[in-house]
Amino acid sequence: QTVTGNFAKVIHGLNANQLTDQVIQRSKRMILDTLGVGLLGTSTEVFHKVAQYSKIYSSDLSSTIWGHLDFRLPPLYAAFVNGVAVHSMDFDDTWHPATHPSGAVLPALIALSEAFPQKKKISGLDLLLAFNVGIEVQGRLLHFSSEARNIPRRY
Question: Rounded CA gap, 109 and 113, in Å?
Fold first, then answer.
């Protein structure tokens, strides 16, 4: 089976009913941790540089920069800036071999969810499902990556 086929087989048809109580509780903890680290990261120099640079982009469709309610960017750039805030502290969750799943997934999900029209807003359970699909994708990418398997030997 191809890598793409494996991804499609697992992800297709997932729904919120498949989330166990344990997965929901762990996901909430991961999300809360990521938000906390991200908010702390908005005080870093690298965050300020990236945020300043990103101000050149504007769009009618916009998402919030964490900790700065008056600062909005297109979802792509908001996800990037908020992701930089999370990872700039380097306290976000980690798998072995090294990857930071929540710091890549959560900023993108929140930025996209803010960009949905009001009548199409997603529920908290939908957000948890999307978060877990993103985490699953990261885990599978890690599993299929020959580069990731070599990380412990390289460092």
Answer: 6
Q: Are 34 and 93 in contact (CB under 8 A)?
A: yes
The one-letter code for the residue type at 151 is I
Place of tokens 């908290």: 124
Q: How far apart are CA 13 and CA 48, in angstroms?
A: 40
DSSP 150: T
- The tens place of each residue's pLDDT in the chain, 155 residues long, gives 787 887 888 888 788 999 999 999 999 999 999 999 999 999 999 999 999 999 898 777 789 999 988 889 999 999 999 999 999 977 767 665 566 789 999 999 999 999 888 888 888 999 999 999 998 888 777 777 766 666 555 44
Total-model pTM: 0.85
DSSP 70-126: EEEE-HHHHHHHHHHHHHHHT-S--BTTTB-HHHHHHHHHHHHHHHS-GGGPPPHHH
In 3D space, the residue among 60, 88, 86 whose CA is nearest the CA of residue 72 turns out to be 60
Three-state secondary-structure class, residue 40: helix
Domain boundaries defined on the chain: 42-136
